[in-house]
Amino acid sequence: MHFLLTLGERVEVADQLLVEPMDDGSMGSFRIGEVAIPRKLGCAVAEVQFSDADGIPVTAVLNVDTEDRLYEVDVWKVNFAPLQRWPTELEMVPVLFNTSLQRTATPPAER
Question: Where are the domains of the chain?
Answer without folding.
Answer: 2-99
